[in-house]
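2024-03-11 09:14:02 INFO worker-7 job=invfold-0412 stage=load source=structure_tokens
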């Protein structure tokens, strides 16, 4: 595989990035993906500052390759998080859920590459104006918190490509080498993969959740709670309770009350498959086994290369 703008920007072997997912992306997963030639990411969204510090230090011991930290900008203790990232010498930060102008310049002044995650053309353009080094454009197939416009990856990537000149990473619905090639044909320089890495031994999520992901079929995930922050999750008892509440035309406050606190932790980290919020992408219908992160990287890259030869004959 030849070098491209993303492999050069991050100094990695493959243009394959593991998403920074809450309750799944600790140092074990990030270091495993980085060691396999991709870019591993520690998801700080479910970590207290001291916990993040520990994960960064363990990741540095487990790999001598580049890795990143994902920071949702809604995080309450964000100043402390950014301070730790700079102190610990992290070289790449992915920001999401907020204004990229807030931290980009400060991070770059400290020698850090900044990538912002967006779900629309408008925010991709705003991110480029804010001076980020690259953007992740994520279609609504993706798991977890998501765009309100329900723009699919297949349409979003070429539309963003048309409007920006900085490197573009595609996310949402990508778990195979074929999907990776398709995204890059549409204009992406690299892909970001979340759901596929959840079903790996190194992911810090609960075994119950991983098994449910592997058993998921097409149609088993849904985008809901748009009045709060749209989230894609697996249908379970908690989802049925949301549907029951919607029949009564609930207020925003009633939805917040039903959601409660730590619902995602309960499901993805503690393994409560009834009452937990089980965030995963539509591509879960194509994930059939739990396998090591390095194997996932290897399989995706080898399929990418063989399919590239296949399509040359079309």
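2024-03-11 09:14:09 INFO worker-7 stage=emit residues=314
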């Amino acid at each position: 595989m030849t070098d491209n703008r993303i492999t050069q920007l991050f100094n990695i072997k493959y243009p394959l990035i593991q998403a920074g997912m809450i309750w799944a992306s600790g140092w074990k997963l990030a270091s495993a993906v980085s060691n396999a030639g991709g870019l591993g990411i520690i998801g700080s969204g479910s970590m207290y500052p001291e916990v993040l510090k520990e994960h960064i230090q363990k990741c540095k011991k487990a790999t001598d390759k580049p890795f990143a930290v994902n920071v949702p900008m809604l995080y309450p203790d964000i100043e402390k998080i950014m301070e730790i990232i700079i102190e610990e010498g992290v070289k790449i930060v992915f920001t999401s859920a907020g204004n990229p102008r807030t931290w980009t310049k400060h991070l770059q002044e400290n020698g850090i590459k900044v990538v912002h995650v967006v779900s629309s053309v408008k925010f991709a353009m705003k991110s480029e104006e804010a001076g980020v080094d690259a953007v992740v454009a994520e279609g609504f197939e993706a798991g977890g918190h998501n765009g309100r416009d329900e723009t699919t990856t297949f349409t979003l990537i070429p539309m963003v490509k048309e409007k920006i000149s900085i490197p573009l990473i595609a996310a949402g619905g990508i778990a195979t080498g074929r999907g990776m090639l398709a995204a890059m044909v549409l204009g992406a320089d690299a892909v970001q993969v979340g759901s596929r890495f959840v079903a790996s031994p190194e992911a810090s999520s609960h075994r119950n959740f991983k098994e449910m992901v592997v058993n998921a079929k097409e149609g088993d995930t849904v985008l809901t709670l748009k009045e709060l922050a749209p989230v894609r999750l697996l249908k379970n008892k908690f989802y049925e309770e949301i549907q029951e509440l919607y029949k009564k035309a609930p207020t925003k406050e009633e939805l917040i009350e039903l959601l409660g606190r730590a619902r995602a932790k309960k499901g993805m980290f503690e393994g409560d498959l009834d009452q937990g919020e089980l965030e995963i992408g539509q591509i879960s219908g194509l994930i059939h086994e739990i396998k090591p992160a390095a194997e996932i990287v290897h399989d995706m890259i080898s399929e990418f290369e063989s399919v590239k030869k296949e399509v040359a004959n079309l």
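2024-03-11 09:14:09 INFO worker-7 stage=report msg="Residues 293-312 form the longest helix (20 residues)."
2024-03-11 09:14:10 INFO worker-7 job finished
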